[in-house]
Predict the structure of SESN2 protein.
Amino acid sequence: QDYTWEDHGYSLVNRLYPDVGQLLDEKFQVVYNLTYNPIAMPCGVDTSVLRRAIWNYVHCVFGIRYDDYDYGEVNQLLERSLKVYIKAVACYPEKTTTQVYRQFWRHFKHSEKVHINLLLLEARMQAALLYALRAVTRYMT
């Protein structure tokens, strides 16, 4: 809540490595905004709320919480099997199995599941960067 990518991490990375903050931010935004709108059906569905819930849940798993986000949304949108999968991939990617992959969202396309993987891995990377950059900030002050 007191150290975010938008407010602190981005500017520190750009100060330490010019233009890298911009590249990382673009990478995060591309994955976060990546959608062709269907979810298990061909019609257009706004997936932004789901994508935000997944991103914030990954951050929550790593102890990062935001005051301006309603975490009740996570419980409404993410079923238990998806939460188990997210924790497994985010915390123990080497232990993730095909069985765990098949247990969440059984009626969804593989491309939709791959998008979930991209989202959670980028959110994980951002969480790790936030912890590292916060340590650098504390060291510098």
Remarks:
- The chain has seven helices and no strands.
- The mean pLDDT is 88.
- The first helix runs from residue 5 to 16.
- The chain has one domain: 8-140.
